[in-house]
Amino acid sequence: MGGTFDPIHHGHLVAASEVASRFALDEVVFVPTGRPWQKEDKEVSEPEDRYLMTVIATASNPRFTVSRIDIDRPGPTYTIDTLHDLRTERGDDVDFYFITGADALSQILTWRGVEELFDLAHFVGVTRPGHELTEPPIGQVPDGQLTLMEVPALSISSTACRVRVAAGEPIWYLVPDGIVQYIAKRGLYQHDDDRQQFEGHSGAGTLPANRLPDIGKFFDDPYQ
Ligand SMILES: Nc1ncnc2c1ncn2[C@@H]1O[C@H](COP(=O)(O)OP(=O)(O)OP(=O)(O)O)[C@@H](O)[C@H]1O
Ligand SMILES: O=C(O)c1ccc[n+]([C@@H]2O[C@H](COP(=O)([O-])O)[C@@H](O)[C@H]2O)c1
């Protein structure tokens, strides 16, 4: 499963768990993007922070692993490179499944090398609240190379988590506990860059603009 994971949240983890169960996967490899080219107009956290959060969030599941393959490759991140590199690393006997949410799937025809992509992995598109899960037009995906699948609806996004942190609102239970602590410890998401575009979605717009989180409070009162 590829993602910017800025930060990783329970929507990602539930989607991965559901797909692993449905297809009896031996392993789910979480691959944080290096430089997501379709998010170049946005500020994205340092790759090491996103990588470490992904490691923390997946540590308790023996079938979940994290790959540095995209963050260690220079230049923009393309899934076609991810899949080629994983094939080289894992060998020819492995079957790959690439997990995408409905929003990412709806953009897939714009991805680099899309004509080859579906030869490299079986794609699984999962439902996501607020996004319609639809197949690309007939003929765009080789037969049998895409499965659409319903997963429990978790209306969580990384954007909403960042906005909540900037507004001093809790993100407990939207992300694993270790991620709340990591974000506080590293002082991530203090700026409210996403806030305007997101106004009205998290209640953030009703808060005073200068209300920034007091990092110490996370530890004095972890359930603030
Ligand atoms: N709540 C969710 N349910 C199902 N799939 C999800 C959910 N959140 C993200 N995904 C999927 O996980 C993958 C990685 O998503 P990404 O890291 O961009 O998270 P995001 O929440 O969409 O982030 P942002 O809000 O910053 O755009 C994508 O395929 C995305 O569609
Ligand atoms: O290969 C591409 O051109 C491409 C374009 C956009 C997104 N992706 C991949 O889709 C996954 C989810 O991306 P994102 O930006 O929604 O976090 C991640 O693995 C990205 O590398 C891939």
Automatic annotation (TrEMBL):
Superkingdom of origin organism: Bacteria
Enumerate the Pfam families for this protein: CTP_transf_like
Task: Name the UniProt key words of this record, in alphabetical order.
Answer: ATP-binding, NAD, Nucleotide-binding, Nucleotidyltransferase, Pyridine nucleotide biosynthesis, Transferase
> Which GO annotations describe the biological process of this protein?
NAD+ biosynthetic process
An example Gene Ontology molecular-function term: nicotinate-nucleotide adenylyltransferase activity
Q: What reaction(s) does this enzyme catalyze?
A: nicotinate beta-D-ribonucleotide + ATP + H(+) = deamido-NAD(+) + diphosphate
InterPro entries per record: Cyt_trans-like, NadD/NMNAT, Rossmann-like_a/b/a_fold
Record-linked SUPFAM superfamilies: Nucleotidylyl transferase
Question: NCBIfam families from the entry?
Answer: cyt_tran_rel, nicotinate (nicotinamide) nucleotide adenylyltransferase, PRK00071.1-3
Q: Which family does it belong to?
A: Belongs to the NadD family.
Q: What is this protein called?
A: Probable nicotinate-nucleotide adenylyltransferase
Q: Which organism is the protein's source?
A: Microlunatus endophyticus
- Per the record, the gene is nadD
